[in-house]
Amino acid sequence: MEISAVNALTYEEFVELFGNVVEKSPIISAAIWSHRPFKDLTDIEAHITEFIHSLSDSGKEGLLRCHPDLAGRDLQSGTLTRESREEQSQAGMTALDSAEILLMHRLNSEYKERFGFPFIICARLNNKADIVRRLSERLKNDRAAERELAIEEVKKISSLRLHNIVLSGIQTKL
């Protein structure tokens, strides 16, 4: 998709197409639409990052809470977003055995109890062994450090999603 096509999208089309670049946060797409015309993909990404960084700590944590647990309830019930389902599948999180599911449930529960938001890692850049290892390691962090690590992971996820939409020319319901 050419940047000129992105810039020509109506507000509704833009929010529909980019609304889940940051998981379940179409407000970000809605907010950055007014910055058109975008110079290129990097410009769009910069506006997303700027929006995220402008949030207060509680706003950042709210953004983090929009993400599902890895191999969690949403995966088991089939209610993940299409993007999250694909990402978790690529990382092997949809093919866990019963012991691995129990381990992920325990680690996810410990993490959420400690930090108040779900563990976030860019699943597309990791496999299930990396995810379990990093989850265990990050449980040792303090809340502020972990919030910032999680936000960095959100930015990685959103960058990959944005590139997928623009570079592959995906059109949804337009």
What does this structure look like?
- The chain is an all-alpha fold.
- It folds into two domains: 3-62 and 164-168, Oxo-4-hydroxy-4-carboxy-5-ureidoimidazoline decarboxylase (UraD-like, Orthogonal Bundle), CATH 1.10.3330; 69-154, UraD-like (Orthogonal Bundle).
- Helices cover 65% and strands 0% of the residues.
- Whole-number tally of structural domains: 2
Class by alpha and beta content: mainly alpha
Principal-axis shape equals globular
CATH topology of the largest domain: UraD-like
Amount of helix: 55-70%
* CATH uppermost class of the largest domain: Mainly Alpha
- Architecture of the largest domain in CATH? Orthogonal Bundle
Provide the low-confidence segments as ranges. 170-174
Let me know the number of strands.
0
Q: Beta-sheet strand percentage?
A: under 5%
Q: What is the mean pLDDT?
A: 94
User: Main β-sheet: number of strands, strand sense, barrel status?
Assistant: none
End-to-end distance: 13 Å
- Individual helix count: 10
